[in-house]
Each structure stands twice: as C-alpha cells, then as structure tokens.
Amino acid sequence: MISLQASVQCLDIGNTKTKFGTFRDGTVTEIGSMDTKQFTACPTNLLPQSSIRDLPLACCSVVPEAERSLRELTTALDCSLFMLTSKTCRDLPISYPFPEEIGADRLANSLAAHTFFKTPSIVIDFGTATTFDIVTQDGGYEGGVIVPGPQGYLDFLHQNTSLLPLVNIDFNKPRSNTIGKSTVEAMELGVRFGYRSMIMGILDELFEFFEDSYNTPEIILAGGAVKGVGIPNAKVSPNLTLEGLALAFQKNHGEGLKP
Question: Side by side, which strands form the sheet with 121-126?
C-alpha cells in the first residue's frame, strides 16, 4: 500500500494492451484491461464515463493513435487529462541524454521505483517489449535495455516463415514435455526455455554496471507477462506503472506524499 493523497484514475496505453485502474486510499482498484486496438476504436469500452467526469485521469501512452482517441473523448466530456512525459515527470532525476525518447510507461515505472523501492534498482517490465530500466538515487533514470517480449518471438516466427503457425503463449498453462512433440509445442518450449535464459543473461551483464559504483540492485518485476519468469529475490509489482502514474499526477498537482 502506498501513502498518496487524493484519488486519480490511471491509464496505461501499451502496444498490445491498455490497462486502467483507480488509485484510491493508497491502492489501485477497479483494474481492467483490453486490447489497445479495441480501446483506440472506442475508449468508453474501458473508461467509465461517469467516473472520468468526477475524477482526474492520468495517462501514459506509447501508441499515438490511441492517445488521439483518448484526447478526443476527454475533450468532448470536458474531463481533466494529465499526460506523463519526461517534462511532467517531476522529482525523478533523468541522467539519460535523450529524455524525450524514454517511453512514458518506463518513466512511470522508474518514478515509482525511485520513490517507493530501494535504489539502485533494475525495473523489468514484461509486455510486448521487455524493458530493463536502471534507476539510481542520484542519477535517477540512467538508461536500460529493450528486447522483444515472449509473444514477439512467436509472432516473428509466424510472420517470417512459411509453415510455422501463429501461437499465443500462455505461461499459466503448465508445460507437458521437455522436448516438443508438435510444432506448436516446440515453439512454446523455445520461448519458455530461451526467454528466461535471456532475461537472466541480461541481468548478469547489468550487474556489472553496479559492481564498482553501487550496491547490489533491487530487482522489480512489472507488466502483464511477469508470471512467466521466476527471478530469485525479485519484488513483483504488477501495477507499478499505474502506481507511478498516480504519483506523477500528484507531484504535478502539489499533493505528493503524505508526511
């Protein structure tokens, strides 16, 4: 639970999914999500019109078309809309040389990590892309690493080969074999085995960044595919982006943290 004042609705527009939640009494509640394509076509399928008239809405977006649909809706309803950018992400130092290039979701994650978790930290967000963000106390947002998410590998195989089918990964489904007994199973196993090994390999490289100048970093896991990867001693925070949005909104509106 996070001690923040007031209530705010939070919207995270991602490449594949858009997630919504209401931050109230220190907790994200009323969480819902839908495909971003569907949200773009009709934002009110996810956003309750009555509540967005009553409460301010904070948003981070990496999909310009969906953001345009949202702005049209909030303008039509005369609603308050806060968009998180590198210019509105207050109280997070940014030592990255090109702050305008940082995805707004990564800013939200890093602000939450910088405020509520130990630093230094590595925030790993599992989505359409898997992002690793380095957050330190003095440098704030330092930079990171970007690789495809687990579904991206399967989509690539389908789109760039003639015979491999479209497969949707489901980490909640237990694997039945160690070697694939069908094409679909072989593709699923490739992602299950290879993806986690890649994550751990990247972490090994990133740890070298901290060896000389910093303490051992805290590992924070966020995002929709977080269930598929087990990382020892990591903190799991699936709503980190929404929490960071709520924090960014309140820092911009003079409320911030409770004493």
Answer: 140-148, 129-136, 121-126, 218-223, 235-236
Distance CA 172, CA 145 (A): 26
Summarize pLDDT for 142-176 with one digit per residue, the tens. 999 999 998 999 999 999 999 999 999 887 788 77
Cα of 119 vs its chain's centroid, Å: 19
Contacts 24+ apart (CB under 8 A), 34-38: 36/63, 36/66
| 105 annotated active-site | yes
Question: Catalytic: which of 25, 35, 78, 105?
Answer: 105
Give the strand order in the sheet containing 27-35.
27-35, 17-24, 8-13, 57-61, 81-83
209-241 pLDDT, tens digit per residue, is 888 777 889 999 998 656 657 788 899 998 999
* Structure token pair of residue 4: 């923040």
CATH number for the domain running over 8-148+196-252: 3.30.420.40
Q: By C-alpha distance, which of 166, 105, 159, 157 is closest to 131? A: 105
